[in-house]
Amino acid sequence: MLRVEHLQAGTLPPLTFEVAAGECLAIEGPSGAGKTLLLRAIADLDPAPGQVFLNGAERNEMPAPLWRRYVRYCAAEPAWWTDAPREAFKGAASGRAERLLHALGLDAAVLDRAVAALSTGERQRLALARALLDEPLVLLLDEPTAALDPQAAALVEELIKYQTLAGRSAILVSHDRGQIERLAHARLLLSKPETASVAAAAAP
User: Fold this and answer.
1) Which of 34, 51, 76, 85 could be 12's S-S partner, Cβ–Cβ 3.0 to 4.6 Å?
2) pTM of the predicted model, to two decimals?
3) What are phi and psi of 145, to 5 degrees?
4) For residue 133, what are the contacts with CB-CB under 8 A and spacing of at least 6?
């Protein structure tokens, strides 16, 4: 379980909420409300006062790289530090990379293409596969289908559902109301920078 206590990201008020294993929490709000800031604060990528616990362990009780290994942030515009994706997939468990790529509608040959030659949607799906390689316990998903066509977006949604069915927690930022209805068990509403509330949602 991920529990956030009095976490203050940017100009948002201190927020307290939790996401159980196997559940997806959707964060909704207008542009500029602080959704991405909140995800980055949970991932310990930006300093923010407050506490975040994973299965009872507070993030400051473990090295930052280990926390980010368990609590994985997937940016809306993922960065790449390699010329070809394959370099970022080295060390993956045998066959796992191929299974993830297949689930996302990608051929393994894409790993050997130059990152600069890939479409935005291909890079986004590859980044999700990269994030899932070592099976993090919590996924922080920032607009995971923003650059995708409906068919590719459906594959991503199925993979997210599979992750929660496997017992992982997910926090989803999306402007797609239908996607939120399909995936989320609860919603965190950021209506303005100074206000926020948690609302239950129908199970997907």
Assistant:
1) 34
2) 0.91
3) -125, 15
4) 89, 92, 93, 96, 97, 100
Does 94 fall in a domain? Answer: yes
C-alpha–C-alpha distance, residues 145 and 149, integer Å? 8
Let me know if residue 161 belongs to a domain: yes
What CA–CA distance (Å, rounded) separates 132 from 144? 13
Strands in the chain per DSSP E: 2-7, 15-19, 24-28, 51-54, 57-58, 71-74, 138-142, 169-173, 186-192, 195-200
Q: What residues are paired with 189 via a beta bridge?
A: 28, 197
Encode pLDDT of 128-174 as tens digits. Answer: 999 999 999 999 999 999 999 999 999 999 999 999 999 999 999 99
Residue 71, helix vs strand vs coil: strand
Expressed as residue numbers, the domain containing 94 is: 22-34+68-200
Residue 204 CA to residue 71 CA, distance in Å, equals: 23
